[in-house]
Amino acid sequence: MHLFFSKKDLALGIVLGVVIGLVLGYVVSTRDIDDLKSQISNLQSQIEQIRELIPPLRTLAEENGILIGSAVTASYLTEAPYAQTLSREFDILTTENALKFEPVHPSRDQYTFGDADAIVSFAEANGMKVRGHTLVWHQQLPGWITQGTFTREEWKTILHDHITTVVSRYKRRIYAWDVVNEAIDDDGSLRNTVWLQGIGPEYIRLAFEWAHEADPQALLFYNDYGASGSGVKSDAVYNLVKNLTESGVPINGVGLQMHISLESPPVFGDIAANFERLNDLGLEVQVTELDVRLRTPATTEDLTQQANIYRNMLEVCLSADNCTAFVMWGFTDKYSWIPAANPGYGSALIFDESYNPKSAYFALISVLAERSNQD
């Protein structure tokens, strides 16, 4: 299979990068400011030339038969570096918040599709697929849902109308949906949500059936955290989707969120075994929300460990017959949910706040390139 660069080329690029860094470290010690600015400009140009030798992630991912992508926020698409990096590096986008219940369906008779429309249009203009996130969840619900007092039939009508309206709008435009999100609690039981209370356990089955009716061509996923490897929750998710498949419910796969910290690194052997048992059910697996948070300020050692986790997770995905997408929960540290949700942590993504690629980015490039060379 044709590849744009060899391992030798990549090594040369890395060496050149180191040399440039050493030269830059020297010139900043000089006192001639005008000469300094000129040399920095020349060095930046050389760095860009080196980076251009490396194919984007999406090119290498396509050669390896998987999709690679990021969750996105519509308002950031107007920022040129954000949009340019997205379109260059990725071939699948997830609607981070735009299609969650509260933003898209703020009142019973009102839908707001502006942000979702912008993301889908951007994806179509740049040859990308879209993952719709999410149709049924217990969080980010509007007050008319959380404070609603409806009969069981009314709850069913509300959920049916929501799923049908949203999925139908993007029929044949959104490639896959996270139909039900986080329905399993940490102890392996069904999470006590408004949907469970209002409809009963069958809300999960109904959601998949209604989504399939609205767009029979879309791939339908169950999505959750804490279910990637082994354990009570992973087993509960497996049993849930096993029962759905055996009952003929139209489910195509499982999405694994994977918000990771260095303090609790994943056990990659367990993840591979989980992928395999889901494959035995005939289900795809997609890594849907990957990030690796670090204590800030991050050290060089932290960034190296982070890169290794990204590398190993991608290797597990590429080694599995049923892993079809590798999606991160954002791509630049400039716009990451981690610092707000996990105070003291950050630096979780593969580009820094200035859109410069980090060690984790090059780790992904390296894995994909090595796999391509093997083919």
CATH arch. level architecture of the largest domain: Alpha-Beta Barrel
Strand order of the largest sheet: 1-2-3-4-5-6-8-9
Q: What is the number of E strands?
A: 10
- Show unreliable segments: 1-8, 18-24
CA-CA gap between termini: 6 Å
Number of domains: 2
CATH superfamily of the largest domain: Glycosidases
**3D shape:** globular
Give me the secondary-structure topology:
Layout: H1 7-27, H2 33-52, H3 57-63, E1 67-72, H4 80-89, E2 92-95, H5 101-104, H6 114-125, E3 129-136, H7 143-146, H8 152-169, E4 176-181, H9 194-198, H10 203-214, E5 219-224, H11 232-246, E6 253-256, E7 259-261, H12 268-280, E8 284-295, H13 300-319, E9 323-328, H14 338-341, E10 345-346, H15 359-374
Parallel strand pairs: 1-2, 1-9, 2-3, 3-4, 4-5, 5-6, 6-8, 7-8, 8-9
Antiparallel strand pairs: 8-10
Helix pairs in contact: 1-2, 3-15, 8-10, 12-13, 13-15
Q: How is this structure best described in words?
A:
- An eight-stranded parallel beta barrel has the order 1-2-3-4-5-6-8-9, surrounded by six helices.
- The chain has helices at residues 7-27, 33-52, 57-63, 80-89, 101-104, 114-125, 143-146, 152-169, 194-198, 203-214, 232-246, 268-280, 300-319, 338-341, 359-374, and strands at residues 67-72, 92-95, 129-136, 176-181, 219-224, 253-256, 259-261, 284-295, 323-328, 345-346.
- Helix 12 links the parallel strand 7 and strand 8.
- The protein folds into two domains: 1-54, no CATH class; 55-374, TIM Barrel, CATH 3.20.20.
- The radius of gyration is 22 Å and the shape is globular.
- Helix 12 packs parallel to helix 13 (300-319).
- Helices cover 48% and strands 15% of the residues.
- With 375 residues, the protein is of the alpha/beta class.
- The relative contact order is 0.11.
- The protein has 15 helices and ten strands.
